[in-house]
Each structure stands twice: as C-alpha cells, then as structure tokens.
UniProtKB/TrEMBL annotation:
One of its GO terms (biological process) is Golgi to endosome transport. Residues 199-214 have a biased composition (Polar residues). Residues 175-220 are annotated as: Disordered. One of its GO terms (cellular component) is trans-Golgi network. This is DOP1 leucine zipper like protein B. The gene is DOP1B. It comes from the Eukaryota.
Length: 1132
C-alpha cells in the first residue's frame, strides 16, 4: 500500500489511529519467531516512520516498550531494537537510500539503559553497544547526541569579541553625546549674541582680559596675577606653593605607583578569563545536559576502551551518514559565532576561518567538552538562578566526560609503543586540553576565594574611575559564593590526575621539544633552564607537562589554604598523593609548601580544640563552611603518604623516578621534619588528654566523658595514624627525627618560669614529646640514647627558615626529662649506653647549660641506682663523674682571673654578676650560648654552676664513691674548691651572688667528714679574715653550718679557739684584735647546737666579755643581720 498505491497511502497517513495500529503490528513482527519477515517489516516500518505526519508516532511505540515496567517486556524491546538497528544500517549509511528520519529518541533511550541499575537491562544494552561498535556504527550512535550538543540555542561567542563590541558601543555613545552637547552649546551662544547687542561694546573693551584666563590657567598666568595683587604675601605664598607642589608630586607618584600595581594585578586576574566563551541567550543548557548525559553513559559502559578506539579512528566524513551534513553545518556555524560572526549568517569558506575543523570524532568530542567547560553567561544578561545552576551542571558534566575519555586514552597508551602515541599527542596539543583545564581551575579557585575579600582596595577604585572593562566583570558567576565552585573543581582535579598520567605515558622517553644542544651536559643544562622558566611562568607554557607548569604548582601551593575551602582539601590531597610518581623535577617544589600548609591546618585544629568554648580561631570560624569530622585524619594520611614517598625507598612503584629529583625532594622534606613533628606532638597531646579524661570517667572520678571536638572523637584511630607516620621514619632517619625533635623541644617554651632552678623543669608540652617518643616501639631506650649522642656530637642537622638551629642543648634537655620518666629497671638495663652518652658528650665543646644538664642526668641516674654490681661500671661512673664535675667547676671559675701572669692564685673579675633567680636565661639563649659572646654571660653561668654544685656535689660524691673509696674524691673536691674559695674571699657587693652560692656549696660539702682535708685550712683562714662578717644576711645560715661542721669534725678546734690569745694573732690591728677574736669565739658557740659545748663551760667562762657578745649581738638577732642588714665595707 505504501509502495505501490499512493491513494491508499494518503488515506492511511491521514488516520492517526490507523498509523499507530500499523506501527504496532510492524513492531510486533520483529520478534524471534518471525525472522524471515524482519527485513520487509523493517523497511515498511522505516517508510511509515518517514511518511507519518509526526515522528513521534513510531518512536512512541518503541520508547513505551523500552521503558515498560515489566522487565521481560523491556528485554524483548531491546532485542527488537537491536534487530531494527542492524537491518537499518545499510539504509542509514547509504546516502542514496537514506530517509529523512531516524529513530533518535529510541536510540537515546537505549543509550540511557546502559547505566540502568537493573543488571540484565544494562547487560543487554551493553551487548548491543559492543556489537554496534564492532560494526563501525559509532557515527550512527553519536549522531543524535551531536545534534543535541550543537543545538543553535547553545551558540557562544569569545569574551574578547564581546569586549571589543562593548567598547565600540560605549565609544560611539560617548561621541554621540558629545556631539549633541556641542550642538546645544552652539545654539545657546548664537541666541546669547543676538539677544545681547547692548553689551557688545563693554565686552569688546574687556576682550583682552576676559579671553586670557582659559590659557593662563594652564600656563600659570592666573597664579602670577594673584601674586601681583597680593604683593604683601609674596614670600609666604612662594614657600607654601612649593610645599604644596612637592606634596602634590608625592601624591601623584604614590597614585601612579598604586595604579601600576593594580593594573598588573588586574592583568593577572583578567588573564584567567580570556579563554571564556559567553552565551548570548539562555536556555540551551537543557540540550547540553541531555547530550552529555548520554555521552557519559556511553563512556562509562565502554570500560575496555572500544568506544575511544572507535572515536580515535573514525573521521568526521559527511558522506558516511545521513544527518552528518547537518552536524557539519552546525559545527561550522558554532565556530563562526565563536569567532565573533553571526550564527545564522552565510557560511564562510573553511579557509577563511582561523581554526581548522576537527577531523576525527574524538577531536570533535574533546573540543566540544572544552567549549562547554569554558562557557558562561554574561553579566549583562537577565538570568534566573535555574539557568546559572544548569550551566554549572553542564560544566561539571563536560569535565566528567573528558575525564573518562582521558582515562580510556591512558589504558590505550599503556599497551602501545612510543611510535603509536603521536595521535594522542596531537589530540592534547591541538585541543589545548591541559591549558584550558589549568586556566579553568585557576579561575574557579580565584572565584571561590574572592568572597573572603571584603571591600575594594583604593587601587581598584582608581582603576574604575579611569574606566575600562575587565574580563572578570563580563562574566556572571552567580551570588552563591565559593562553594558553588567546588563540584567543578573536584571534577577538574580528577581530570588533571588523568592528564598527568596520560602525559607520562605519552611523552615517556620522548623530548617534548627539540633541543639544539649536542652534549649530554648541555642538554641537561638547557632542560633545567627551560624547567625553571616554565615553573615560574604565570601563564601556560607549551611543550611542558602539567607538573612543570607554574599555574599548577601555584595552585597546589595555595590549595590547602583555608580561603580556598576546606571541602576541597581532601580532593587536593588525593590528587597530589596519587601524582607523586609523576611530578619529576617539581616533586620537591610542590611537596614543600604542601607539607607546611598541612601542618598549619592541623595546628589550627588543635588550637581550636584547646580553646573550645572560648574565642575560636578566626581562620576556622570566619567561613560558614562545615568541615568533615575526618578532616584531620585525611590530612594526616596525606602527610604520611607524601613524607614516606619522598624519604623511604619505593620499590613497589611502577613509575621510574630520577634519583636526582627524589634526592632534592628528600632534602626538602627533611628540612620540614621539625614542623611535621611539631604537629605530631600537638596531636599526641590531644590523644593523651582525651585518653586521660576517658580513663577518669571510666573509673568514676568524673562524669561520663564526651569529647568537646568533633574532629578528635576517634583518638584510637588518630593514635594509630600518628604511629604509622613516625615508625617507618625512625629506622632510616633516626638521627634526623631526633634532631627535629630537638627543634620542636626548643620551640615548646614553658609559659611559667621556675625560679631558683638551674636545671629545666619540662612543661606539659615537652612532657608530651617524651611520651610520644616512648610510645614508638622502634625506639628502645638504648636506641634513644644512641641517637641523642649522635645529635649532640653533630648538632647542625636541621636548617631553619633563616639559619641553622643548634639542637645539642635542647636534645640534652629532652634526655634529662626522658631519663627521669623511664623506670629504674629500664635504667638498670641501659647503664652502658647512658655512660657512653655522658662520656662522649662531656668531651664536646658544649655551652655551659649542656654541662649542667649532663650533671643533672648523672645525678638522677646515681640517685635511682645507688649501687652498681659491676666493678667496670663503677669505674666508668667515677671517671664520668670526675669529667663532668671538672667541666662544671671550670664554668664556675669563668668569672675568675689570675692575679698576675705567673701566679696560680685567682681573684674575682670586677664585673656585675647576675643571680639566677633574678634573671633566668631562657632556653633559646642557652641553646645559642656557644655561638654568642656577651660580657655578662660568664657571670650568669658561673653563678648557676656554683648553685648547681651546691645542690648536687656533696650527695653525688657520697653515692659515687663507696665507704672505702671516699679518699679518692678528695683530690677532685680540692680541684673544685680551687674555683670556689676566691669567691668566698671577696666580700664586695658585686660578688654577693657568687659569695652566697659558694657558701651554700661549702655548707653542703662540709657536712661530710671525709671532705675536711679539702677545705678546713681555707675555711679557718676565711673565718679569721677581718672581713668575715661583711656579708649579706642570707649567707649567715650557710656560714653557721660551715663553722659548726669545722668545729665538729676537728675535736680540738673549739678548745684551741677558746684558748687562743689575741696577742698571738697578727690578723687584725692591735686595737681590734681582742674584739675580733671575741666575735669569732662567740659565733663559734652560736653555730653549735643547744648545749653542744656545755663540757667546755669552764673554758668559756675564762674568756672575758664573751658572754656579753653572745647576749648583746646574737640572741636578739638570730640571723646575725650585721652591718645594718646589708653589707659592711670596714672592720668591725
């Protein structure tokens, strides 16, 4: 009927119900039971579809079956469509037989079925796709999708063309307004001249004077005229005008400089938007979303790359399909509109267009996706929020499709030889994929952080006053803030990750540009120079990979800053961690700021945790943005991946890396170790605090504990992540880790200063560092002591931001606290490593605080292990003790000098001395003491050394030397007292801090009888010194103890003192001998205990006037605060 009887055909086509019935019959014939009728049914069905008044009649029947609720019906419909598809191949591909209509809607439904959640439906559609691609049907499949993507409503124009048109329009309107104003002025002047005839003579009389002001204002004539009239103020006006001119010049220079800076800044910003395309009308995003969704389903379903392979080898030939003429026509018109021409105008010849049309289907799809990515709505177009949101979804979808294409190209590139990569190279460079991806990412990041800037700078206002359009002002980004940019940025990061991998495979072993250098050294030098130029460039540099682009490196360095959005940080961390093997020369450049920013973000979270409930940190609370609860874990895992990749051997990596690049990155990461370990210590403090509070709540000491911070609820996982970061580093980089801990220790200063303490008292933050080290299973006590020894021997391990930091003193401070924290059993098991640390450290040129710490470590060790069974250990302990005490004794004598060149006697330097409790040096000054020379530094450390010896020396020697070895200590004590007695002989006011410390030392030492040979003679001489009582009242108690010990240890000393005749002494002047002797005899009795000398009462009574001295001088003032409670300068 349709073929041979046109009359019946006309009647049939006028009845819609009849068409539907016939269509249903023909569709039902395409089942498995009537295969012999399939060809004729398909031909009739196609003719009916073309002749029907509406294309939806036949399409509705197919689509209803493909979308039926019954799965069996849907599967049968897929089978029938497959039959229809294959039998219409010759009709659709042959231009002489092609018809005006195809089954586009049905094809779209089948393509959409590829992503169906029902496995049987998607499998059936997948089978159709694989078979269709194997039969070269890729153009037939893409035909309706391309028509959607090239719909006329999606036309766009470059932002440069629109900017030029707007500038021309503005200039024309200004010229028109100026012309109208001139016409009005001329009309007014003519009217005035004709109306004002009576005043013509007056005006001519004043012609010379009235016509000169306009030029004279410019030439300064008016100013001169004013000066001549006001001749009395000539000098003042001259000075004022010169000052005003200078001020105006300075202001003009400042304004010019500000304008220049703002122009450069504006130029850098506008360069981010010069690639943008603008839609002239709204509404085309619906077609684009539909087409991109179908394309995404096709790409997702071809996981084994058959679609990309077909796209890569299929040309855009208009003779291969019926509707490709329309596709080609639309493509030319879109390119014509993009170049600034009319979309509906006459088509230009291909030679007149600046850009060549794509020749392969994959080039066409990639270029279209990049156009959608670059397209925005202009700011002058009236839009609804739905239009803006729709365009953002188009951009995200286009990047997703691009990412799938690039991923499948990667799979293809892995299995090809280097010679077969040329087509992929041409695709990437011809479409400028990397350039547009980086530009779009940089622009999106700028938009997302732009909301944090409040107000405009003065330079921006000046630029706006001067006029001019900026590219940024022409683009409508919406008013939703930076969070609307996050979906696009996430997809762009996925695209960049795929492109980085593809670049590595495509250009692996190939030079991206020809190098004229001949020798290998010259080629390496030229490569390094070109890399530096690329890495510093603000724009995209051709022939360099993404990882060597300054745009990418800059974005990576800024990505984790708070103003770019916390929601994006995990995605950036994932990108950079997965791209580590491909970074090449950029590895060290990228990871250094990344590590630093990760540590700063972790530190900010800890500060927020510590101050929770109070004033929160501004950088975290200023942005109205939710941070994921696992945010610190994400950062910590990224930090672990980056650090371990750069520092540890990566034998499992499938990508070969240049050893030079890895070494440079390793050095950069080692320099960042102190900052990383500082963050680890802060996190460990959070773990300790949370675990302590949890244990307290479990034991019933407090209410049920709930963490105040949502980020640190899972402390068990956090502890595990910290250990996973630290443990692998301690084996290969133990010395660097320990030296970095020394830097961290130095930075954790105590807020409370402990007065009268020479040895430091560890703060809570420093205790946390010790606990963190103790939790590392790879760092046993002997290992820690060995590493500390290595760091102290070579303290220049870590380079800071400006200069290297000496970590020997902080390392010894850490050791002092660490040894105090371990058990006595652990100390017993590590005697040899500890003695080795002390022995080798005391031989070094340490600053005075270092020797103090060695003495403190030794004292703690001896107090906790008083008895050593091993005789060798005992001998070693005595040797170490002697060396350390001699070193501290030398520091104690640093404020002494020889009385003459040949004499061995010493005297106190005439210089001010600083008492430790009055001005306690902090850790930083102590750590840098060996590199600084100060006139007051020796006095500070000499007083501290005396105070420390007074506290430690006597009990230490008593435990180091056993009862049968006490005499061995006497020579050592004598050598130490050689530096002490000169301070006790000097009663000057400036020496009082050393005098008091020396008296305390002698007081503690004199309590042991075996030491008397080292001091009894000198003490008696000091006791008989005419200036003996010239001292501060605080020293009296020490001397009371010293004299008591002297008289107690020497049995006849008191009797001899009481029997001494003043005439036999030549110590004082004749007039003062008797009262001086009586005073010393009275002080001797006062120093003893109650009734200690009652046996000598007859002898005491024989001494004249001694009772009066005891009653009058000492009993009313037990502290013998002589000389007006101060110092005395003369004899008593």
């Amino acid at each position: 009927c349709l073929c041979g009887f046109p009359v019946y055909a006309g009647v049939l086509l006028q009845s819609k119900d009849m068409l539907v019935r016939v269509s249903r019959v023909l569709w039902s014939q395409l089942d498995t039971e009537r295969r012999e009728q399939h060809i004729s049914c398909v031909e009739l069905f196609c003719r009916l579809h073309c002749l029907a008044p509406s294309a939806s009649i036949c399409e509705d029947i197919i689509c209803q079956a493909l979308l039926h609720k019954d799965k069996a019906v849907r599967l049968e419909a897929l089978h029938r469509f497959t039959v229809l598809w294959h039998l219409t191949r010759e009709i659709q591909t042959n231009r002489t037989m092609s018809l005006s209509r195809s089954f586009d809607r049905s094809l779209c439904v089948v393509v959409d079925s590829l992503s169906c959640t029902d496995g049987s439906i998607s499998a059936a559609a997948q089978c159709w796709l694989v078979r269709a691609l194997s039969l070269s049907d890729v153009i037939r499949i893409l035909e309706p999708i391309l028509l959607l993507l090239l719909h006329p409503s999606t036309q766009r124009c470059s932002i440069q063309s629109i900017k030029q048109n707007l500038v021309l329009c503005v200039c024309e309107s200004e010229e028109t307004e100026e012309g109208e104003e001139e016409d009005e002025e001329e009309a007014e002047s003519e009217h005035t001249e004709s109306a004002d005839t009576s005043g013509a003579q007056v005006s001519t009389d004043n012609t010379s004077s009235s016509s000169t002001p306009y030029p004279s204002i410019e030439e300064g004539g008016m100013v001169n005229g004013l000066r001549r009239v006001e001749s009395g103020h000539t000098q003042a006006s001259d000075s004022l005008s010169s000052e005003d001119e200078e001020d105006l010049e300075l202001e003009a220079m400042a304004k010019s400089r500000l304008l220049k800076q703002e122009r450069e800044k504006r130029e850098a910003i506008d360069s981010l938007f010069r690639h943008v395309l603008l839609y002239p009308v709204a509404g085309g995003w619906r077609h684009l979303l539909q087409g991109l969704g179908l394309l995404d389903s096709l790409m997702r379903s071809s996981a084994e790359c058959p679609l990309v392979d077909a796209l890569s080898f299929t040309s855009l030939d208009t003779s291969s399909a019926a509707h490709l003429n329309l596709v080609s026509n639309l493509l030319q018109r879109h390119q014509q509109a993009q170049d600034g021409k009319n979309f509906y105008g006459c088509l230009l010849s291909p030679s007149s267009t600046p850009s060549a049309p794509p020749s392969l289907l994959i080039e066409l799809l990639v270029s279209l996706c990049l156009r959608f990515l670059r397209s925005h709505y202009p700011s002058y177009l009236s839009l609804s929020p739905l239009d803006l949101q729709g365009n953002r979804e188009v951009q995200v979808k286009s990047v997703a499709v691009l990412t799938r294409i690039v991923n499948q190209l990667c799979c293809t590139a892995r299995g090809q030889d280097a010679s077969d990569m040329e087509s992929i190279r041409r695709l990437l460079s011809g479409c400028k994929v990397q350039q547009y991806a980086l530009l779009t990412l940089s622009a999106s990041m700028y938009i997302s952080q732009r909301g944090t800037a409040k107000g405009q700078s003065k330079g921006v206002e000046l630029l706006e006053e001067q006029g001019g359009l900026s590219e940024e002002s022409l683009v409508n980004f919406g008013a939703g803030g930076g969070q609307e940019q996050y979906p696009l940025q996430m997809e762009l990061l996925n695209l960049l990750q795929a492109l980085i991998v593809l670049e590595y495979h495509v250009w692996s072993g190939e030079t991206r540009e020809s190098s004229p250098a001949s020798t290998p050294l010259a080629r390496e030098w030229q490569t390094a120079v070109l890399f530096q130029q690329s890495i510093k460039a603000a724009q995209y540099v051709q022939s360099h990979p993404i990882t060597a682009q300054g745009m990418f490196v800059s974005a990576a360095a800024r990505a984790l800053q708070p103003q770019y959005g916390y929601a994006m940080h995990p995605h950036w961390v994932s990108l950079l961690c997965s791209s580590l093997p491909y970074l090449g020369r950029s590895l060290g450049i990228i990871v250094t700021p990344l590590i630093s920013q990760i540590c700063r973000n972790l530190d900010e979270l800890v500060k927020l945790y510590e101050h929770d409930g109070g004033k929160t940190n501004q950088s975290l609370s200023s942005r109205k943005e939710n941070i994921a609860p696992d945010y610190p874990l994400t950062l910590l895992e990224g930090l672990t991946t980056i650090t371990h990749y750069c520092l540890l051997d990566n034998k499992r990596s499938l990508v070969a890396c240049d050893p030079v690049d890895v070494r440079n990155a390793r050095n950069a990461v080692i320099e960042a170790l102190p900052q990383m370990l500082g963050s680890m210590a802060l996190l460990w403090g959070v773990v300790m605090r949370e675990e302590f509070q949890r244990r307290a709540s479990d034991s019933g000491q407090s209410s049920r504990h709930t963490s105040t911070s949502v980020y640190f609820r899972t402390t068990k996982v956090l502890r595990q992540r910290i250990l996973e970061f630290l443990l692998p580093l301690t084996g290969q980089y133990g010395v660097q880790v320990m030296a970095s801990l020394g830097v961290v220790w130095s930075n954790r200063k105590s807020k409370r200063r402990h007065k009268n303490k020479v040895l430091p008292v560890a703060s809570e933050s420093r205790q946390t560092i010790v606990e963190m080290v103790k939790s590392l299973s790879t760092l046993h006590t002997d290992t820690v002591l060995h590493l500390v020894k290595e760091v102290v021997k070579k303290p220049h391990q870590i380079k800071g931001e400006q200069k290297s930091t000496l970590v020997d003193i902080p390392m010894l401070q850490f050791s002092f606290t660490y040894i105090q924290s371990i058990s006595a059993q652990a100390l017993q098991e590590n005697i040899a490593p500890l003695l080795s640390l002390l022995r080798e450290s005391v031989q070094l040129n340490l600053a005075p605080p270092g020797h103090f710490l060695l003495l403190g470590i030794l004292n703690d060790f001896v107090n906790r292990l008083p008895n050593l069974d091993n005789k060798k250990d005992t001998r070693d302990l005595q040797e170490v003790t002697q060396r350390i005490l001699e070193a501290v004794g030398g520091i104690a004598g640093s404020s002494l000098e020889q009385t003459s060149w040949l004499s061995r006697s010493l005297e106190v330097k005439v210089q001010p001395q600083v008492c430790p409790e009055a001005d306690e040096p902090d850790d930083e000054s102590a750590a840098q003491a060996s590199t600084m020379v100060s006139s007051s530094a020796p006095s500070v450390y000499s007083v501290q050394a005396l105070v420390l010896l007074a506290e430690i020396l006597a009990p230490l020697l008593d435990m180091v030397y056993r009862s049968d070895e006490k005499e061995k200590a006497v020579p050592l004590i004598s050598r130490l007292m050689y530096y002490v007695f000169p301070y006790l002989k000097n009663h000057s006011a400036y020496n009082m801090p050393s005098f008091e410390a020396g008296a305390q030392l002698l007081s503690s030492l004199s309590g042991y009888a075996y030491t008397k040979r080292a001091w009894k003679k000198e003490v008696f001489e000091l006791f008989m010194d005419p200036l003996f009582f010239t001292m501060d009242a605080s020293c009296a108690q020490s001397w009371k103890s010293i004299i008591d010990h002297l008289l107690t240890h020497e049995k006849t000393m008191f009797k001899d003192l009481m029997s001494m005749q003043s005439s036999s002494l030549k110590l004082f002047a004749n007039a003062d001998q008797k009262p001086m002797l009586l005073k010393r005899q009275a002080f001797a009795m006062f120093s003893g205990e109650l009734d200690q000398y009652h046996l000598y009462l007859p002898l005491i009574q024989d001494v004249p006037d001694v009772s009066r001295f005891l009653v009058a001088d000492f009993h009313p003032a037990p502290d013998i605060s002589l000389a007006h409670n101060g110092y005395r300068t003369g004899n008593d």
